[in-house]
Amino acid sequence: MGSKKMKIGVVFDGDLQVGGGFQYQRTVLNLIRDLKDKYEFVVFTFSPENEKYLRTMEFKTIILKRKILDKIKRLTLRLDAFSFLLTKVNLVCDFEKHLEQEDIDLVYFLQPSGLALDLLKHNYIITVWDLCHRDYPEFPEVNFNKEFERREFFYTRALKKAVAIISDSETGKNNIIRRYGIDLDRVYVLPFLPSTNIYIKNDMNVKEKYGITTEYYIYYPAQFWAHKNHVYIIDSIALLKNKGIYLTAVFSGSDKGNLNHVLEYARKKRVIDLIKYIGFVPDEDIYSLYKNALALVMPTYFGPTNIPPLEAFAIGTPVIYPDLPGLKEQVGDAALLVDLNKPETLATHLENLINSEKLRQGLIEKGRNRLDEINNVNRISVLESIFSDYEAKLKCWKIK
Asked: 196-375: same fold as 6-191+377-394?
């Protein structure tokens, strides 16, 4: 009897409007699709909308349901005082029941997921996007309402049990090892790629569609969290306005609680007419929004890597990015760097871009070169090495 392929359960736990997180997961799914000849994949998701997308990629997909009783069971399993007793009566969460039914050998979480804490009989790979609650604990979204403690609880427990940990960069890898005492050979780097939707070339008049009346605009696709630092752009736009330079800032992305603050700040600075909030953008508009922008401006505090600079590099749009550790390493010499304490540095860069086509074209060329360097990383081989190493050990206790 021929041996069966190792079966990997992939958890796709996001939705279309999550932003970069969703795009990252979609990119990884495209990568593992190339490994279907060697391994069998079953994708688990909570979203029916994701199921429609996954079926177009020809993955077997199982929809998970969020149940109150299962949530209670999961929370109980996380209490050390009860977990040993519950394992004796074979009490497992619904997710693990699905894993058993599908005969899954290894679980791959495409994002940090609390489900990893509930697994009693399955090994897993975990993805860590960032540790920004440790980099900048002052921001409300990673600190208030016990969010800092929740993240620490998760990473402290989940990382040390993982078969492998996926990080987005060498900076991220080093932070994982240093902060949580993880062995060096358990952490792998899988750099971000531009999202696939930017390659939908749909040349359109975005200025007309979105009511942009100034000659130039800058683009910032980001959810409205405090750490995204939209107010920095507003300060710079106000400085330019005082010099008689009128530039529109186009913001896209869902509101995570900070949108009203950003708009009120723009009113206070008397530049609300130069701010265009366009909400969630359909895939077919993204290419033109980037292509026609004076620059992608992304003054975020969080990193160390982000997807929009890669998208801008791919399309041919200059990038303006923070001069912060980790973030500046992502872009190399292919971006103009700004001091987040000095909005005048952004204002100066924007004025220079308006006045110098040579500067603009030079940045576009450097961006393409930087993206080529990033694309030269063989991401498939990284995943294949993790899977094959685990498969060699799996036969010690399971016959395929």
From this structure: yes
How many degrees, rounded to 5, is the angle at CA 339 between CA 249 and CA 317?
45
Strand partners, 224: 255
Output helix, strand, coil percentages for the chain, rounded to the nearest 5. 50, 15, 35
Which H/E stretch holds residue 337? strand 336-338
Length of the chain: 400
The rounded distance, in Å, linking the Cα atoms of 5 and 22 is: 28
**In the CATH hierarchy, which fold is given to the domain comprising 196-375?**
Rossmann fold (3.40.50)
- Domain positions in the chain are 6-191+377-394, 196-375
The whole-number pLDDT of residue 55 equals: 81
pLDDT digits (tens, 9 = 90+) for 60-86: 999 988 766 556 555 666 666 555 555
| CA proximity to 191, closest of 391, 337, 332 | 332
Asked if 130 and 303 touch (Cβ cutoff 8 Å), the reply is yes
- How many other C-beta atoms lie within 10 A of the C-beta of residue 110? 25
Q: What is the pTM of this model?
A: 0.89
Q: Would you say residue 287 has pLDDT above 70?
A: yes
Q: Is 388 helix (H, G, I), strand (E, B) or coil?
A: helix
DSSP state of 211: T
Q: Where residue 87 falls among pLDDT bands split at 50, 70, 90?
A: low
Residue 108: both structure tokens together: 């791959």
d(CA 74, CA 77): 5
What average pLDDT does this structure show over 2-20? 77
For residue 335, list its beta bridge partners.
none
Write down the CATH superfamily of domain 6-191+377-394. Answer: Glycogen Phosphorylase B; (3.40.50.2000)
* Paired residues of 7 in beta bridges: 40
- The whole-angstrom separation of Cα 198 and Cα 201 is 7
Contact 22, 14 (CB under 8 A): yes
Residue 177 three-state SS: helix
Task: In whole angstroms, give the CA distance from residue 133 to residue 149.
Answer: 9
The burial class, CB within 10 Å (0-12 / 13-18 / 19+), for 184 is: exposed
